[in-house]
Structures are given as structure tokens and as C-alpha cells.
Write a sequence for this structure.
């Protein structure tokens, strides 16, 4: 089945640690995205990638980093510079960036201890 | 500027009844798209329906239909014959320019 997978489902981080969230898609989509969702709020764009080896900052990129070495994979690293990282993180993909429907993975819930 | 407004934080509907979830948008881009997503308690955002700004007819997908009123900048989601499994958060989103904008969501509870 084609789709988007995210791992882990739950992640706990100690303060000062970097953690990496995985996102993989087998939909052959060129574009991939990372969003952050906080309670009672909509989604906010962290980073997006239109094509392999390219990525752009979204609205709230500070404290996060990404890479796009393979078309299928778009991992997100939450660095120690992100002061309030506890949130729900959603990865999405689309055929092309910002012109087609985005399809989402199941999400990763990150909690800072 | 806020691009998407969902004014109903919570809605209740009787099973088998129809329900309308409101969404208004704000964009000056002549070409844009409107989306509705469902987010059950598991967290995954599930794509429901899409309407393009130049589409003449309202989009429909099974029990979902989008009541698109361009002049009022309104894109309401209508769910017919509600089922218990429809209980979830519903998000309206718009694609305009190089960005997607999401509303704050409406929580729908279907009552047996």
C-alpha cells in the first residue's frame, strides 16, 4: 500500500538533547513537508522540500533542521535550540509543492521531560 | 493576516442527520484551492475533499460535499447521514501562492 510512515509514534526527549523524527513516503511524491500542531491550533509549517537535495524554511523553522537526500525520506531534527518542542509533528507529501493535495502521515508526539 | 477562519470550536449532531461545518477564507490570489481534512483522535490528518477556485460545481465525495460560495469567501463542509465514526476534528485549509494555511479546526461529536 502506498502511504506515508512516521516513526516513532511517541518520543520523549530530555532537555538539551537533539532528536530526529523519521518520515518516509512511497507515493513517488516530489514535495514533502513538516508541520507542528499545538493544542487548539492549526498546523504550522516548519520546513518543506520541493525536490531531492532542496529544502526551504517555513514559518517556524528556528530550532529545527531537515535533510532530503532521498526522494522517499525527509527526516526532521529537533535541536536543543528549540525552546518549546513539546508538540505533535505531522509529515506530509504532495506530487508537486503547493499545487496538489497534501497527504499526511500518522504523526509523532514529542514530549520534553 | 489570518487566511482561514473556523468559527465553530465544537459541534454536535445526531447520528444519521446532516451537519455543516463553517469555513471562511481570505486571499487575494485569483487561483487557490480549498481543502478539508479530518483528524480523528489517533492524530492522522485524512484528506476529505478539494475545491479549486475556478471549479464551477461544488465538489462532492461520497457523504461529503463542499458548499463553495466564492463571493462570500466561504467553503463550508456538509456531511450527510452522520455516522459515529465521523466524530473527529475537522480542519479547513487553503492553498494560496507558496503556502498552505490551516484553520484552528472544529470538533464534531456524533451522538447516537
Amino acid at each position: 500500500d502506498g502511504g506515508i510512515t512516521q516513526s516513532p509514534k511517541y518520543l520523549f526527549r530530555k532537555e538539551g538533547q537533539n532528536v530526529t523524527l523519521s518520515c518516509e513516503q512511497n507515493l513517488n511524491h516530489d514535495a514533502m513537508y513538516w508541520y507542528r500542531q499545538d493544542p487548539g491550533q492549526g498546523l504550522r509549517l516548519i520546513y518543506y522540500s520541493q525536490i531531492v537535495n532542496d529544502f526551504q524554511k517555513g514559518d517556524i523553522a528556528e530550532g529545527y533542521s531537515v535533510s532530503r537526500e532521498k526522494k522517499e525520506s525527509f527526516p526532521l531534527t529537533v535541536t536543543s535550540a528549540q525552546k518549546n518542542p513539546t508538540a505533535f509533528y505531522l509529515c506530509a507529501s504532495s506530487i508537486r509543492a503547493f499545487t496538489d493535495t497534501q497527504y499526511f502521515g500518522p504523526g509523532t508526539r514529542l514530549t520534553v521531560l | 493576516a489570518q487566511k482561514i477562519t473556523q468559527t465553530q470550536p465544537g459541534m454536535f449532531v445526531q447520528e444519521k442527520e446532516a451537519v455543516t461545518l463553517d469555513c471562511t477564507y481570505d486571499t487575494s490570489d485569483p487561483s487557490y484551492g480549498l481543502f478539508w481534512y479530518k483528524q480523528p483522535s489517533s492524530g492522522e490528518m485524512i484528506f476529505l475533499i478539494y475545491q479549486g477556485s475556478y471549479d464551477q460545481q461544488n465538489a462532492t465525495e461520497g457523504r461529503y460535499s463542499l458548499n463553495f460560495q466564492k463571493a462570500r469567501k466561504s467553503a463550508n463542509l456538509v456531511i450527510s447521514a452522520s455516522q459515529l465514526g465521523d466524530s473527529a476534528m475537522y480542519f479547513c485549509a487553503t492553498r494560496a501562492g507558496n503556502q498552505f494555511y490551516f484553520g484552528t479546526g472544529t470538533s464534531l461529536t456524533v451522538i447516537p
Observations:
- Chain B touches chain A at residues 4, 35, 37, 42-47, 50, 91, 93, 95, 97-105 (CB under 8 Å).
- The mean pLDDT of chain B is 93.
- Chain B has no helices and twelve strands.
- The CA atoms of residues 14 and 111 of chain B lie 5 Å apart.
